[in-house]
Amino acid sequence: MKAKVYVTLKSGVLDPQGKAVEQALHALGFKEVGGVRIGKYLEIALDGGTRDEAEHRVREMCEKLLANLIIEDYRLEIVP
Amino acid sequence: MRFAVLVFPGSNCDHDCYHALKHVVGVEASFVWHKEESLAGFDGVVIPGGFSYGDYLRCGAIARFSPIMKAVEKFARAGGSVIGICNGFQILVEAGLLPGALIRNRGLKFICADVNLRVETTGTPYTAEFRKGEVLTMPIAHAEGNYTADPETLEKLKRNDQVVFRYCDASGNAGDAANPNGAMENIAGIVSEGGNVLGMMPHPDRCAEEILGNEDGLRLFKSMVNSLSESRV
């Protein structure tokens, strides 16, 4: 089993990297770009357990370490 | 009086802090490896700057789970003096010992420069020997020093007089032009509610000796040591 975890900055938290990429895209002519937010994507290989257990454990990992809930949100998917 | 200077893999200002305390201020100091679990016998703790765990994931996020941090939490919650400088500040916010977070500088760049700081309160053990409103000069060296907190936290910090230093210009104006990294309200350093835990992005350890051309940092360390000596009498 594998967990796919997406960690993103909460809306309202300044994302200077996203801003820089947005400006670069505009400079390249992609005028339709209305905003860019950069986050992290993690793939976590998991041994054993049920899908529900896995989800519960990965949620715990996110809240304890993978995301800083003061500035970040996370979402996850469990895949075979 | 004895200070613990914590050492994580990737700490790089540990020797500066040790030198400032031991050889300039003249108190006892010992390096304490992050795998240690006790702070018994220490009167204060310094979490130095650097790049603990390579800044992987988020600055300070992995270091805050090092074994020694349990002892630091206990020490801090019991009212012990803990000062986190730069990466040390990042570790303290990740550990929840100080509120808020430190995110990427708004200009994206790593900034290594002298900045002006305004002393916002003298009601802490670290600033008792400064004057309120006094302008200091200290170096910063960071890429993630942009202090961020939700509006309630900011309000609480101000209400409790927990903002210790603000970035300012040479005349003490803390406007946006004097803000090097985008920190909310120009915040450069804060203390915990009890006033015993200080986190700051500027480096007092890099301006703590005459030969370095600036002793503003030395005054901070001396203030901390003097406050601790007085409280022990």
What does this structure look like?
The complex is a heterodimer of chains A (80) and B (233). Chain A is α+β, with helices and mostly antiparallel strands and 80 residues long. Helices cover 35% and strands 28% of the residues of chain A. Chain A has helices at residues 16-27, 51-66, and strands spanning 2-9, 40-45, 72-79. The termini of chain A are close together. Chain B has one domain (2-232): Class I glutamine amidotransferase (GATase) domain (Rossmann fold, 3-Layer(aba) Sandwich). In chain B, 24% of the residues lie in helices and 25% in strands. Chain B has helices at residues 14-25, 68-77, 87-94, 151-159, 216-232; strands at 2-7, 28-33, 44-47, 81-85, 101-103, 111-119, 135-142, 146-148, 163-168, 187-191, 197-200. In chain B, the strands form two sheets. Chain B has a nine-stranded mixed sheet with strand order 2-1-3-4-11-10-9-6-7, with helices on both faces. In chain B, strands 5-8 form a two-stranded antiparallel sheet. In chain B, helix 1 (14-25) packs across helix 5. The two termini of chain B are 12 Å apart. In chain B, 54% of the residues are buried. The model of chain B has no long low-confidence stretch (mean pLDDT 97). The A-B interface holds A 9, 13-17, 20, 65-66, 68, 70-71 and B 57-58, 61-62, 65, 93-94, 100-101, 103-108, 146, 148-150, 182.
Protein traits:
heterodimer; A: 80 residues; alpha+beta; Mth169, Chain: A; three-stranded antiparallel sheet; 35% helix; elongated; B: 233 residues; alpha/beta; Rossmann fold; nine-stranded mixed sheet; two-stranded antiparallel sheet; 5 helices; 11 strands; 25% strand; globular
Shape field of chain B: globular
CATH class of chain A: Alpha Beta
* Largest sheet: spatial strand order of chain A: 2-1-3
Give me the oligomer status: heterodimer
Number of separate domains of chain A: 1
Separation, N- and C-terminal Cα atoms of chain B:
12 Å
Helix content of chain A: 25-40%
**Beta-strand residue percentage of chain A:** 25-35%
Largest sheet of chain A: 3 strands, antiparallel
The fraction of residues assigned to DSSP E strands of chain B is: 25-35%
Overall mean pLDDT of chain A stands at 96
